Amino acid sequence: MKKLFTEIPYIKTERLVLRKIEETDAGGLSELAHSPNVYRYLPTFLFEQKYEDVHEVIRRLYDECFNESIILGVFMEEEFCGLAEIYGYRENTHKASIGCRFLERWWGKGIATETVGALVRCLTREAGIEIISASTMVENKSISHVVEKNEFLLVVSGVDEDWGYPQPTPANKWIWLL
Q1: Which of 67, 95, 81, 60 is nearest to 18 (CA)?
Q2: Is the pTM of this model over 0.85?
Q3: Residue 95 bridge partners (DSSP)
Q4: CA distance to 28, 55, 78, per residue, from 98 (Å)
Q5: Is residue 74 helix, strand or coil?
Q6: What is the DSSP letter of 24?
Q7: What is the architecture of the domain spanning 11-177?
Q8: Under a CB-based contact definition with an 8 Å cutoff, are residues 162 and 137 in contact?
Q9: Most exposed: 25, 46, 59, 173, by fewest CB within 10 Å?
Q10: Mean pLDDT, the chain, integer
Q11: SS3 120
C-alpha cells in the first residue's frame, strides 16, 4: 500500500473522520475485535485479530500491515465507530479493494454507507483508482445494501472464497467503476 499512499490518509466527511489508529483508540478497537456479532460475516484473518494484545496490534499496524493494506479508524465526534480498510492494490489495473466493520451500537445509522462513500471518493480523487472491489458474505444483507447505495454492481453471487473457515465461504463480488 506504500505504492498507493506514501502516508496514512486522513479522510473527513460531514459526520465522520477516517484516520490512523492511535494508542488512545485501544479500548474501542478491543471491543470491536472481541465482538462475535461483528465478525460473524467477516474473514477470520483480519489484522486486528492477529495479536491477542490490542496494543500490539496498534504498534504493528502501520509498519507490518501497511505493506498489504491500510486500516483506518472510523470516528464520529472523536468516538470510535469501527474500521475501514483498503487492500488488494493492483497498480497495473488501477484497482483496489475495500472493507469495513463497525461496533454494533453504530449499526443502522448510515455510518457504513458514509464510510464506503468516503473510501470511494478518496481512492478515485486522490489515488487515481478506477476500479474498486468489495467482497461480502451472501448472508450479510445489510452490507449488500451499503455497497448498492454507493453504486457498486454485483458481478457474481455465491462464489466460494477462502475466508479462513473450515469450509469455503459463499461470497458476493461487487465492483465500482470510474
Answers
A1: 81
A2: yes
A3: 90, 131
A4: 21, 24, 23
A5: strand
A6: G
A7: 3-Layer(aba) Sandwich (3.40)
A8: no
A9: 59
A10: 93
A11: helix
